[in-house]
Design a protein that fits this description.
about 425 residues; binds adenosine-5'-diphosphate; 3-hydroxy-3-methylglutaryl-coenzyme A Reductase, Chain A, domain 2; ten-stranded mixed beta sheet; alpha+beta; 3 domains; globular
Length: about 425
């Protein structure tokens, strides 16, 4: 392939090459990221008779986006971002009198209006009580043995050499700490589920790098047992699963509130008895009928909007959306309402958190890593997200009781009203 000179004339020639199939989209490495993106867009515009004007309008650092986040970079997908709050949070990583506003990126009309209604109910109730466990990030390589005898020898070796394994994995990052290694085996397969705390990072890359080092430098050479895949699906990343539900992954979040009859009536146009019945027939029985792993109304909506706005790994909504909503009667007219999310991978550094719009959203949230306290920022993030999910869940459940759901979507989702 000819070396490419970085001139506009040459961009036209490159577009012709790409259209004719003489060159591929990734064969533009000698160009700046911005020029390469222009060539890709112009090629597609020509091939597909499409206008890529908006995909090509961006303010982010193209060089970083193209080298760290997105191969064959050609531009951006814009998602509208709105703001909700303030949410009063009684947690351990926010101040009680802080006004917390939450940026959310979504294309679902009515979502942010609904969450905002939930925030109002939380304010009336004096705040959401939120607690978070830092369970840790997991990665589980799968090994092949000759059968149960070798499996026993292998897992014993791992237990007896945990200190050496720890030294290797923790040597890959000063933010990484090995919490435990949980073996699981059957047939001739052995899974070692490593759990790490990873400071403010979500930690999937860090855990993968650490496991790779331990497997190839220590476990395989010392035991002679072959690792078939660094991820054996017992991790479990980006898929709902019983093990993540039970043992947790990333952050495990609990958020709750007690609402009196007045707040239910005035903020949510609802009542204790109707909330209890919708909870029973929808979140409980309906989820059983469907064989669902999420006994909730819509955690995924809030997670997706928060994940996009703050630069999280969007595919982890697949596991994050598992969880249980509880509603109980409190007194004659009140309710206790809670959400539980056992598997919430998130981070305040790394991944998409460095992108320009995501950085700005994190600033609004006051989520900035503290050099003297790694992990604090991601715990704060989990607390805020827990309270936001609580607000969203509360409001949607109430919308079912008052028959507001379809009306709100018609008004707000179909452009008949602008808030
Ligand atoms: P992840 O491991 O979350 O998938 P990255 O591959 O971007 O994402 O890794 C996170 C990076 O951030 C690591 O290189 C780590 O050393 C760095 N880092 C900087 N500050 C922190 C912090 N406070 N906590 C954890 N990691 C941090």
């Amino acid at each position: 392939m000819d070396p490419i000179k970085d001139t506009t004339d040459n961009l036209d020639a490159l577009v012709e090459d790409l259209v004719a199939g003489r060159r591929r989209f990734h064969e533009l490495k000698a160009l700046s990221a911005e020029d390469a993106a222009t060539v890709r867009r112009r090629t597609l515009a020509k091939m597909k008779d499409a206008s890529l004007e908006h995909i090509g309008s961006f303010s982010l650092d193209a060089e970083r986006a193209a080298t760290r986040h997105c191969e064959n970079f050609m531009g951006v997908a814009q998602i509208p971002m709105g703001i909700t709050g303030p949410i009063p949070i009684l947690g351990e990583h926010v101040d009680e009198d802080e006004d917390i506003y939450v940026p959310l990126a979504t294309t679902e009309g009515a979502l942010i209006a609904s969450i905002s209604r939930g925030c109002r109910a939380l304010r009336e109730a004096g705040g959401a009580v939120v607690r978070v466990d830092d369970v840790g990030m997991t990665r589980a390589p799968v090994f092949r043995t000759g059968g149960v005898e070798e499996t026993r020898r292998f897992t014993r070796w791992v237990t007896e050499h945990e200190a050496e394994i720890r030294a290797v994995v923790e040597g890959t990052s000063r933010f990484l700490k090995l919490e435990n290694i949980r073996p699981q085996s059957f047939g001739s397969s052995v899974y070692l589920r490593f759990t790490f705390s990873s400071g403010d990072a979500m930690g999937m890359n860090m855990a993968t790098i650490a496991c790779d080092r331990a497997v190839h430098e220590l476990i395989e050479p010392e035991t002679g047992v072959t690792c078939v895949a660094l991820s054996g699906n017992f991790c479990v990343d980006k898929k709902p699963s019983a093990i993540n539900f039970l043992e947790g992954r990333g952050k495990r979040v609990f958020a709750e509130v007690v609402l009196d009859g007045n707040t239910l009536r005035q903020c949510l146009k609802s009542s204790a008895s109707s909330m209890l019945e919708v909870q029973y027939r929808k979140n409980m029985l309906g989820s059983i009928a469907a064989g669902a792993m999420g006994f909730n109304a819509h955690y995924a909506n809030v997670l997706a909007a928060f994940f996009i706005a703050t630069g999280q790994d969007l595919a982890q909504v697949a596991e994050g959306a598992m969880g249980v909503t509880c509603v109980e009667a409190r007194g004659p007219e009140g309710i206790f309402f809670s959400v539980f999310m056992p598997d919430l991978p998130l981070g305040a550094v790394g991944g998409g958190t460095v992108l320009e719009t995501q950085r700005e959203a994190l600033e609004v949230l006051g989520i900035t890593p503290r050099a003297d306290n790694p992990g604090w920022a991601s715990m704060r993030m989990a607390e805020i997200l827990g309270a936001t999910v609580l607000a969203g869940e509360l409001s949607l459940m109430a919308a079912f009781t008052s028959g507001d759901l379809a009306r709100a979507h018609e008004r707000l989702g179909r452009g008949k009203e602008r808030l």
